[in-house]
Write a structure and sequence with these properties.
Two copies of one chain form a homodimer.
Chain A: E1 7-12, H1 16-25, H2 29-36, E2 40-46, E3 63-64, H3 67-72, E4 78-81, H4 89-98, E5 102-105, H5 108-125, E6 129-130, H6 142-148, E7 154-160, H7 163-175, H8 179-188, H9 197-200, H10 203-217, E8 219-220, E9 227-228, H11 236-244, E10 247-257, E11 263-274, E12 286-293, E13 297-304, H12 308-327, E14 339-340, E15 342-343, E16 350-351, E17 353-359, H13 362-375, E18 380-387, E19 393-399, E20 402-403, H14 404-415, E21 425-430
Parallel strand pairs in A: 1-2, 1-4, 2-3, 4-5, 5-6, 8-14, 9-11, 11-15, 11-21
Antiparallel strand pairs in A: 7-10, 7-12, 10-11, 12-13, 16-20, 17-19, 17-21, 18-19
Helix pairs in contact in A: 1-12, 4-5, 5-10, 7-8, 13-14
């Protein structure tokens, strides 16, 4: 390796993650030379407000409020984009790639909406675009999907990929509280932002599902292709229903494809997860992703889904890989073959369902509901009756594997039954995984 | 990419894994072209006994019993080594590398003993050497350690990396049986080989620990540097002791290094793992590895640790990566900086311990043991008395964090106490991990 000049890194954005990245990079030249093969140097850090006092220990001359000028510099090897949101991040990343820099990003919204075109620009320029931190922060997931599983066929991915909603649902499970108090606690504890809409609506998880679909199935989706249901409607009664069936309510992102088929079905919604499923025990703000494949079988990846240091760890891993490749002059990549996706409609989903039905007269309702289900050709695996927290009698049913459209049709009829007190609540079930030998 | 001639693959060894690799590669040229960027073709499969009938569906002319001639061929791009054992695998891999082929191996014994020199040969030749399948089979672990965590500092790795011993201990836990009946069942069920010595002695796990140490700590060890204790001495009483403390007995491989320190301590032994630790629930023949780092925090990787299809999946992932790199002409690597390790002696281990002591007179023994421990400056966190399966009274102690040498000295004294009926049993404890939010 003839080259000995340091690799120069520009950092865009210096919030919690950026500060951690700068801190870990700064003044550790010798150590980074050992990891990378050459020293790594911070060439500039772009921030919104230069006036704000910062204590990252770096030369004040490195701060700038002109990110565009920074990414246009000829001497920048790698741009680390930590701005979040689509613009100006997209324009800056495109400019950086066009100026020959490799890019490391933690920006899920950007990658979900513009991943394929950014990959195209990177491939044209012969530079790298990495974004391990964009999904499940610290958990090494994207590189394993792209490389380690490159010779296998992924059939299904089931993930808890949003720490905020997992924290809220975990609190609801532990305390029996409703959604609002648990959300307030999450905000107070710093696990939710002041405006938690992107998290609780499931939109954040949907963006991650789009990124995972591209890597797992080499299929391109728009975020709008993802079936989306957030957690704002999850009640203490749902959580209690789940407990009564040895389940927990989790917000899951789920990607499925039959081997050899082009169609994918990608969804984000609260689900009742069996206690013995490996995702059920994932508490707090952790993330975990179960990847099922034709050859390898089920694989579980689990770790911190957010936080400055964990996210910075993932960013720096990408940075080391990009730096090594740059040093070796590896500027070409096999562009990921990502084809536009054929999306299976949610109405075609076939799975098992939980139905929670508040009833005026349990015996009467049981008979009437059974008739409706039979009329629609649907079968239940179990029915239990319990006294809900509201004081009402409640039927808790678990169906066999049925088609969602058929079930929705039946539910419309059930809602009109005189013995039924309120529209039934539907939650999809996630049952234990074959082949993960849990105790 | 100008090149369109197929990449040619030689497979050495065609047992369970080899058959699966050949089956998945064969006749799927178009699909592999999509994964790799060019067709992939089997150029030859070396087996020991040509006379044995085989049904892998490939051209009979591809079979050979001369692996040396196969790896010397000029047209071979990638050699997949699935022979196991050190020789002739080592010579064949060296010859393959020297003839310019990249090598994918699943051979932990080979990599543990000769990894650094094989990496040296590969680097000189500008070819790749990958071996994801050598540790935890299907679980993507080595590539994440090498790349995704390349910007982080691993502080500890705790793994269940041997499926046979995990199966045996799992059976003992579930049935209450002793080691011998559980071993027999494992052999009958195909989870243990007829000669299970390498597994039950811990040697197989130790080889994997050496490979993990090189990747996690960039430190080179000999297998003899690993403290080694197998599971042959684990008794039904140990398992019952563990249950009485809400723990399970697992064979773990554990690698530790303080950040910034050169010294490593690497050990393989049965341990009493707290039920709430993420490794405790790993049943059957599964593998799971917990990686703790400075930035990312605890990360869990879990999946099938053995079996034809899972191992083949990992091999094919390496094959795809090696093929892509070959196609792009990426023949240089940053050689992993692996320095000879300074091994901390086991006597310096500081951890918590379980002591199980069969006693003649519980009250008397308790007093005497307490005196001995105090004399050695050791503290216990808890003592319980229980009636062992043998009918004897038994003291079950958990110590505070103490130094192993101090504890062993105390145990020598305890063994001579008149109130103590047999030499005390020592097992090291593994407590829950901070930062994995288990429910």
């Amino acid at each position: 390796m003839a080259r000995t000049r340091p690799l120069k890194v520009a950092v865009l954005g210096c919030g919690v993650v950026g500060t951690e990245v700068v801190r870990r990079l700064h003044g550790a030249g010798a150590e980074w030379a050992g990891r990378v093969g050459a020293p790594v140097e911070i060439a500039g850090v772009a921030v919104r407000d230069l006036a704000r006092p910062r204590d990252a220990g770096i030369d004040p001359a490195l701060w700038t409020d002109d990110p565009l000028a920074l990414v246009k510099r000829d001497d920048i090897d790698i741009v680390v984009e930590l701005l979040g949101g689509v613009e100006p991040a997209r324009s800056l990343v495109v400019t950086a790639l066009e100026h020959g820099a490799s890019v490391v990003s933690a920006n899920k919204a950007l990658l979900a909406e513009h991943g394929p075109s950014l990959h195209g620009t990177a491939a044209e320029q012969g530079v790298d675009l990495f974004y391990e931190a964009a999904v499940a922060a610290a958990v090494p997931l994207l590189r394993p999907l792209r490389e380690s599983l490159g010779g296998d066929d992924v059939t299904r991915v089931t993930g808890i990929v949003n720490g905020t909603t997992n924290y809220i649902l975990d609190r609801m499970t532990r305390t029996g509280s409703g959604f609002e108090p648990a959300l307030r606690e999450a905000v107070e504890q710093g696990f939710a932002e002041a405006d938690p809409t992107a998290d609780v609506s499931g939109a954040d998880a949907a963006a991650k599902a789009v990124i995972l679909t591209a890597l797992a199935f080499r299929t391109r989706l728009d975020p709008a292709d993802v079936y989306l249901e957030g957690i704002t409607e999850v009640t203490a009664t749902d959580v209690a229903d789940a407990r009564s069936r040895d389940r927990v309510v989790k917000l899951v992102a789920m990607l499925e494809r039959a081997v050899g088929r082009e169609e994918v079905l990608v969804r984000v919604h609260p689900a009742m997860v069996a206690r013995t499923h490996p995702l059920a025990g994932v508490g707090g703000a952790d993330n975990a992703v179960l990847v099922e494949t034709a050859a390898a079988g089920p694989l579980l990846f689990r770790g911190a889904g957010a936080g400055g240091a964990p996210t910075a760890g993932a960013v720096l891993g990408d940075l080391v890989t990009a730096a090594r490749r740059r040093l070796l002059g590896h500027r070409e990549t096999v562009p990921p073959v990502v084809v536009p996706g054929h999306v299976r409609p949610m109405a075609d989903l076939r799975t098992r369902y939980h139905l929670g039905i508040d009833v005026a007269d349990p015996a009467e309702a049981l008979a009437e509901v059974a008739v409706v289900l039979r009329t629609h050709g649907l079968r239940t695996d179990s029915v239990r009756r319990r006294r809900a927290e509201s004081g009402r009698d409640r039927l808790v049913l678990e169906t066999s594997v049925v088609r969602e459209a058929d079930l929705l049709a039946a539910l419309a009829s059930i809602a009109t039954l005189p013995s039924v007190a309120a529209p039934p609540r539907l939650l999809r079930l996630i049952d234990p995984v074959d082949g993960l030998g849990d105790e």
